[in-house]
Amino acid sequence: MEQIELKNLTKTYVSKELRSFKDYFLALLGRIPERRLDAVSDVSFSIAKGEFVGLIGRNGAGKSTLIKLLTGILTPTSGEISVLGRVPHRSRRQNNYKISAVFGQRTQLKWDISAYESFRLIRYMYDVPEARWRSNLERFVRMLDLSRLMYKPVRTLSLGQRMRMELCAAFLYDPELVFLDEPTIGLDIFAKEVIGDFLLEIKRSKETTVLLTTHDVSDIERLCERTMILDGGKVVFDGETNGIAEILEMGIFLEFKCEKRETVLPPGLAGGQAETLPHCIKINGVDKRDVPRLTQSVMGLNNVLEIKVEPPDFEKVLKNFYASKIPFGT
Amino acid sequence: MRAAFARVGFTQNQVYSISTYLNILAAFLFVSVQYYLWSAIFEHAVHGQYSLSDMLQYVLAAEVLSVCLHSNADRQLGQMVRTGSLAHVMLKPVAFTEQIFFESLGVNAYRLLFICVPLVLCSIFAFGVEYHFGPARLAGFLALAGLAYIFIYLFELLLGLISFFSVNTWGINSLKMAVITVFSGRFLPISAYPENFRALVDELPFKIMYFEPLNFLIKGGDWAGMFIRQCGWIAAAFLVVFYLQRALLKKMVIQGG
């Protein structure tokens, strides 16, 4: 069952650019020409119940605007949008009972009081039965290691601690659809790991649909089978996460540790594809069908002690993608 | 659920205990300034319909109202718009207008208890101010003050909604202060204004915020007339806020990513 369906969705922002000091005075008279910008442009896709989908893109690609359109906070300029069977900006409050969001740079917790008070408020706001609220809270507090932090004012928590609290709050009322907008931004590796483990457990135990926006591609690799890449407000890739490299034909990386200092390369490799170092051969961009043949020929020419076979680095793939701007089909 | 919002509003103030003590001190200073100021004025001039005792009751009761009648919806909304935190508020299944209203009830309950009560006690026991109204007058005043609360909330909400397109609340705040200072009777009974100006103020809705409830408390008068007038202005403000909010939500922009 599709929980999100978008058809040719566009959101246009109108802005005024004040370039000179004079423009500030002209703005008072309303004389600054308006500039229109499509933050989301002709986007179409659908997401089924229970899917974990990664949404990536550079700064200003339109990711956050897309999430705000899906939550109904923003009204689209044109196109069709359906979230949980409703038009989100028309049925925002009905949808809000089943939707949750974490915005990495903002907080939904009340700043001056304990997170527990905010959790309590959530229970009343979403009309969660006491038993379910309590069992969820106990479980999440254990998973996210929050027991010592629950009654401290939110303003005294570190970023990592606060983000763990935010995730607890976001899932407390068993929402059907969760938008995670850069939930690991600025966090250390330990906090990232706890959050990653928590989301994996949610994925395993609940049928929650999650749309995860992040700049940290390792989060996407770990959690999402499907990835969408947004660029210039358009979806330029929508498919399996590990299929991105394949489509880009970046190939596999091979590294051979050899006994002798001088190494011999097999014939027929493209220029720049291989690199020889003392006791080492590195070959980039190998088609996966060529891996056995190439390995055999390197082993025939050198006394190989160790072989490393690696899929292309996801971050590097993305970088190449942005650089090449290859038009992908969806 | 509404009580939960009020509880959050109440507890948010409670955490700043030093601020509470400073507020009580400020209240004491306020009473002393008002007492000596109006005593000096009345020593040198007779002041129309208000005696010194009436005037002291008026300005102190006005202070009580100003402490616990404001929801600060304009400031809150302005901050939400400027920082983009409006996104979270809009994601709740409760309208942001309701969230602000009920949270402000908690905030104001706290301020009533910890600022207004000490202020009134201080005026009675330290300065010997006498309050002459009976229980019936007080009940009538409380009803009018309750309606004033709703009108002030709608007025502040209207100003807050303007920040949806102005983003900065600086000008809005100045406008609010000017309106309250000049037209509402917050600092001086409107009956003490020059006649021409009073005629203008009488035509505007702002006197229902302070002057009418306070004047009824001190001098009595046509309660039903005031009540109907307040209801009329509240209905008008509600319609303006309702339609403006609906129009603005369609054009809303959330600041930041």
Structure report:
The complex is a heterodimer of chains A (330) and B (257). Chain A has 330 residues and is of the alpha/beta class. Chain A has eleven helices and 13 strands. Chain A has helices at residues 21-28, 63-71, 92-96, 115-125, 130-144, 159-171, 189-205, 217-223, 244-248, 291-301, 314-324; strands at residues 2-16, 34-48, 52-56, 78-83, 99-103, 177-181, 209-213, 226-231, 234-240, 252-258, 274-277, 280-286, 304-310. Chain A has a six-stranded mixed β-sheet, with helices on both faces. The longest helix of chain A is centred in the middle third of the chain and has 17 residues, at 189-205. Chain A is globular and about 70 Å long. In chain B, helix 3 packs antiparallel against helix 6, helix 4 (73-83) packs parallel to helix 7 and helix 7 (135-166) packs antiparallel against helix 10. With 257 residues, chain B is mainly α. Helices cover 77% and strands 0% of the residues of chain B. The A-B interface holds A 13, 59-60, 63-64, 68, 71-75, 89, 92-94, 96-97, 99-101, 103, 105-108, 110, 112-113, 117-118, 120-121, 123-127, 153, 181 and B 1, 3-5, 7-8, 11-12, 15-16, 83-88, 90-95, 249-254, 256-257.
